[in-house]
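Hi there, hope your week has been kind to you so far. For a while now I've been wondering how a particular protein folds. I'm sending you its amino acid sequence along with the backbone structure tokens. Could you read through the record and tell me how the tokens relate to the sequence? Take your time with it, there's no hurry, and the full record follows here.
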Amino acid sequence: MHHNLPLDCPIRIVSLKVTDVRFPTSEGLHGSDAIHPDPDYSAAYVELTTSEAGLKGCGSAFTLGRGTEVIAKNIESLKHYVEDKKLESIVNNFRNFYHALVNDGQMRWLGPEKGVLHMACSAILNAIWDLWAKVAGKPVWKLLSDMRPQQLVDLIDFTYISDYLTPDEALQILAEDGKENDREGYLNANGYPAYTTSAGWLGYSEQTIREQHALLSAQGFDKFKMTDANQRWSVPEAVAWMRQLAEFQPYWIEEPTSPDDVLGHRAVRDALQPLGVRVATGEMCQNKVLFKQFFQAAALDVCQIDACRLASVNEVLPVLLMAAKAG
């Protein structure tokens, strides 16, 4: 159902419902990787029921099965932040709402701003963004892209990151970015050409690796080949493995080591940069402060984000702006 209601329409969030949704993907090892061998793709799924008949906001936090109930319980403990609140009062003061939610005076002891609690906040915030977009009659990406630079900056909580990115710097980045070519028009006209696949894990013989490389090259996929260690290696192991693979010119190595090890990533980057191999990470990065440290330490080349681990769009925005500043 599509709703084209003005934002000043007095839509009230009546209730929050959270559902523990799980799929037995482990039976076929679907989605498994080098460090998560038996995932059951799951979600703590949030539904915000409103005073407008048929209008709901839906959001989720992604999990791998066991533990989903823990996130769901955290969501239940935070539902008073949205129940019986007007949507307008939340989104018109989103920075302060976000700060209050992720810094609940009692719950933050379980974080702060990390782990299960932060993922619970992301599910609630994702549902609010979904609701706001439905009211505006746009997908979330369009709701964002139609905002003026100052509106975007007003969404961001700069707590703990203003030593690296100030509101004025963020505003300048967005203002300059808006002067560039019409990327939205280009993408609407041409699409986004990409194909991703998993060819296999390390542990294959050298002959098999060379056969896969030859096959990909013959099919025209030799421009961007990306490798992913899924946090499996120590820093020395990451460097040693990627030196062996460097002749195949992988574009990046993703998550080469612990997602919290900023200086470890910097060491891997320093070792691989002369070989033309970039370092990518961020999917398991727990918050904007850790991202700030990655940028300050020049420890990554490619910034990856997950709006179900970070606290939704509200935290993704400052991370992307810090990445833009870092170049």
